Every structure is written in C-alpha cells, then in structure tokens.
C-alpha cells in the first residue's frame, strides 16, 4: 500500500502546476511537443521543472506499483468467478503463469525498478526544491534546500505510512502482517530524518545570520518574531508551531514505550504532517509577504477557494486510497507466501539443528560414561594388586 500511497500523492501534487498556470487547459504547453510555430517551453521556468519532475516520478511510481501487483493479479484472476472480472484481471496479469522463467524475469525487473526509484526520489525532490532555491526571494535562495527537502520528504512519507497503516492494521485485523516491529522501524526512521530536518532549520537560521545579508536576516527575524507586526498578528506563531511539530514532538520517539505504542505513534505522525504543511506555508507565504519592496508587505489570508482546493486534494487522496483497498490487495499476497515458506523452512532447520545437538549430547554422554566405567575398572585392579601383593 505504500507504493499506492505514493502514486495517489503524486497525482494530487500534479494538479498544482496545472492550477498555477491560470489556464490549465493549455497544460501541454509545458511539454516539448511538435507544433506549427516551432515554439519550445521555457526550460528555465520552475513550472517546466515541476512538470518534468512530477511526470517522471509518477511514471516510475506507476510502473513500480503495477509490476509489484502482477503476481497478485494473476492470483485474483485464477480465483475470480465473475467472467468480466476474469477477463479484466487476465489482461492486467499480462499472461502470468507462475513459471520459473516468469519469476526470474519478474525479480530482475523489480530489482532494477527499485534501484531506479531510489535515486529518483532524491533527484525529484531536489528539483522541486530548486523551484525556491533558484529564485532571488529572501528565504528561498539557499543551497540547503535540496538535502533539506529530501529529508523532509522521507520524514513526512514515513509519517504518512504510519497514519494509514495503524488504522488499517486495527480495522482489517492485520496485526499478524503489520507487526509492532514494522511500526517501530518506521518510528526510528522518522526520528532520524526528523533530526536531519531540525538540523536544516538551525542551519537555515545560522546561514542567514552568518551571511551578513540584511534581507535574509530580516526574513528570518520576521519569521521568528513577526518583524514590524505584533507577534500574534504575524506568521511567527506558525513558525514556532512547525518547530514544535517537526523538532520537539518527534523527540518522544527516543522512548521505547512510545515507539511500541500504536496510538501514540498515530498522533505523533499527525502532528508531524501538520508541521510539514506549516513548513511549506511558512516557506512560501512569509517570503512572498516580506519581499524587497515594502509596498508588498501584506498579510495573506486564505479564501474559501484556497481551503476548498486543500480539502479537495485530501478528499481525492483518501477516495483513491480507499478504492484501492476495496479492489486490490493492500499487502502483497505472494510476499506473504514467501514469508510463510521462509518461516516454516527456518523452523524446520531449527528443529533439525536442535535434534542434531541433542544427538551429539547423547553421544557425548554415552562416551563419557563408557570412559568412566573403563577408568574405574582399571583403577580398582591396580589398587587390589598394591594392597595384596601375594
């Protein structure tokens, strides 16, 4: 389900470059395509960067997700009773016959796609960070943004995985599949990436001070204190709220009891996601409301349409995810089969080792008793000769 979550999240993210165009029906202008006027897109535009980054990420995520589903689609095809479902699943399974050749090619392709997707995550989020780092707006023009965005993506990604996994684990009775060991491992990764994000916050403030750039210093001071505005009438509460959510709250994961408490993990991950949303809000809004020209220094107040777009993306994500849970397996069937086989094989090997160890101990015990008996007999004869030499 993590791959499906990624795919649906990318679909939500892909809407925003289109909305920012103003005329989304001309979305194809962002792509290099043959046309009668021989025009090419402006490759130095962040909108074009977003179009390439999101489309590439969506393509690889979709292929990786679909390839992982092929053996399970074949299982569903073989068990389907409805003729229409059998035909649709038969097309989707791509003629999978569960042969050794199919498994060999499948594992090779899946490994290659996994190796391609890992660096793609880093490159895509680095490109997205360049939307800000490539500008001259105070608070955006920083070289820390690429690693800072990559760490933040992993940080919020694992938090979202736990937000979806914990209720699914409870309502679908998947405690034997999604164990506390899995939840604790995700919590440890959230803690590590949270420390990297905290370092990014501190480094951003230090760089603004150490650079001597008065505009960067003014921007950082305005984020922390509100600048010329009163504290509660500025964006400073948002800044300190994100520090609380993304820096202070994840430190609770140092505790083993909290890492192994599903309810505590769920609420911590919700706080983390809130903090990541506040981080994007602070990065974008505060920099645009405190530009070089003081005439542009105004507060931004979201309209009902801004909140509607925000709520719509959340609704679209959960609609797609719940539809996925309804139609396709949330946990890979063939991976569970492999795991069961490995567990039984491991148990069989452990039983064989225990039996072999027991036999060795019995042989050693029999050998020791035989040696003791022969030694005792020889000792008794020597004593009798010494006492009664006649």
Which stretches are poorly predicted, pLDDT < 50 over at least 5 residues? 377-390
Profile the largest sheet: none
Radius of gyration: 31 Å
Count of helical segments? Answer: 13
| Quantity of strands, as a count | 0
> Shape, please?
globular
Tell me the structural class: mainly alpha
Instruction: Indicate the percent of residues in helices.
Output: over 70%
Number of domains: 2
What's a quick, concise take on this entry?
By secondary structure, this protein is mainly α.
How would you characterize this protein structure?
The chain is mainly alpha-helical. It folds into 2 domains: 1-134, no CATH class; 136-296. It has helices spanning 2-13, 15-20, 46-79, 83-92, 100-133, 145-171, 180-211, 214-225, 236-248, 256-259, 262-289, 304-327, 333-387. The radius of gyration is 31 Å and the shape is globular. Residues 377-390 have low confidence and may be disordered.
